[in-house]
Amino acid sequence: MIFKKLFNITLYVFVLLVPILPLKVKISILPLSADFIIASFLILFGILNVIFEDGLENIKLRNRNIQFFSIIVFIFLVLNAVSFFVAVNKGAAISESMRFFEYVFLFYFTYIIADEKTINRTFNLFFIAMLLAAAYGVVQFVFGLSPYTVNRNIRLNSTFVNPNYWGAAVNIVIFYPIVEMINKRRISLNDSLFLGLFIFNLLFSLNRSSWLAFLAGLFVILLLINKKFILSLPAFIIPLMAHPFTRKRFVTMLSVEKIAKDARFKLWKTAYMMFKEHFWLGVGNGNYRYFYPEYIERYPALFVRKELWSPHNSFLKMFAEMGIFGGLVFILIYLMLFYMVIKVYKGTKRYKVYALSLIGFWVAYLFQNNFNNLMFIPQLNVFAWLLTALIFKAFVLETKEAI
């Protein structure tokens, strides 16, 4: 079982290094980053394991949810191929498709190969990596190491590319200590320290959409546990009000006038106009940025600044790039990933805490993707796929034991 062992070891390396290595370079159309390089070895060992050890005939994808998910993914891959011929910049279309293939292969090989021991170790190692990243966030704050500021106030980005992505990354793990304490019905020192560390990083990312996403995820968690717990939700707003600048940032979210002036509205409208004018097939996968200059020239009212290409909305980006069918199938893929976690939460006895924590993350993630292009940030998005594959495989193994 050498290839399975190599896959497991590489998976451990992946979850330890990817959160703390923000390496991102590109050679021609080939994206080179920590996640892509390590994932390439994972995929290689996964293929070798399936061919030489498990055997192609023993691939177990009989689960109905996995089968339905596979159909959706296949349709999206076909639409990717169509989009290649539509795209003006073929390299960008290939690069974007390669990223999606990375997520798909990682999901399936993890689901096929991972056993219970691998799953538990992977979750623990990922949590350790995020603790290290959060600790570095504190170091950034104390020594002023972050290159990002707003009104001369430092914004933490830790080991991620920018504060928006870091705020979203914190939301992957911040719900775990909360759910753990509720589950144990006591406040432990470790969970309190972990929660305090993550809240600090979330606050000083100064990313308002991450704050709202956290509150949305927490609301759903409390609703699922006990509706009475929702009364405690305002307590989590208190830290936002404790520091003068976080308080000021929070209050701006309540100002209709400032919201109306937000540049995102122009960016969203630009993406919508692009979708409207390329309704069926879009402008081509990964090609939004190459059409952006043309649109701000044609519609001067949409101008924000020339170098700002992102639509700050993953769903609008996909509708603009791949048209109505690509956009709808893309949304369906992510809703299906979310549904798998819900399925686990409803049926598991052993992984209740993990599943509920991931429900909080998925609510936060889907919410925040309306304000940022997180689904196109590999260092972040890859864990939405990977952690879902792990928890769903854990559930499948658990239910088989129960039969």
From TrEMBL:
Record key words, sorted: Ligase, Membrane, Transmembrane, Transmembrane helix
Domain O-antigen ligase-related per the UniProt entry, residue ranges: 194-331
Transmembrane segments: 7-25, 37-56, 68-88, 94-113, 125-145, 165-182, 194-223, 318-339, 351-368, 374-396
Pfam families reported in the protein's UniProt record: Wzy_C (PF04932)
Any single GO CC term annotated in Swiss-Prot or TrEMBL for this entry: membrane
Key word Ligase present: yes
PANTHER family membership: LIPOPOLYSACCHARIDE BIOSYNTHESIS PROTEIN PA4999-RELATED, TEICHURONIC ACID BIOSYNTHESIS PROTEIN TUAE
Protein name in the entry: O-Antigen ligase
Organism expressing this protein natively: Caloramator mitchellensis
